[in-house]
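User: Some background: our group keeps a shared notebook of sequences we're curious about, and every so often someone picks one and asks for a predicted structure to add to the entry. Today it's my turn. The entry only has the sequence so far, pasted here. Could you supply the structure so I can complete it?
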Amino acid sequence: MFFYTMLVSVFAIYYICNMSSIVISPKNYKELQFISKLLKKLGVSSKVLSDEDTEDLGLAVLMKDVDRSELTSEDEIMSKLKG
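Assistant: Of course. Here's the predicted structure to add to the notebook entry:
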């Protein structure tokens, strides 16, 4: 079963232009097509993300939120890599 994720950019114009995004996960391919066509008719830009793109996005969010205050010794890293 394929999972589809859609990243939709929403533009708000005030005195400055702010850009936000919304992530939509359709239930199936038919729903993905419907949402894509609807957004196109509304003039909203969108991009369909592959499973790999979605995983990369999730990894990026986790990497952003990681605690970088602690340092790890090179010996500890090497022992983990060796098994």
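Suggested note for the entry: The helical segments are 29-42, 51-65, 74-82. Residues 1-51 form one domain.
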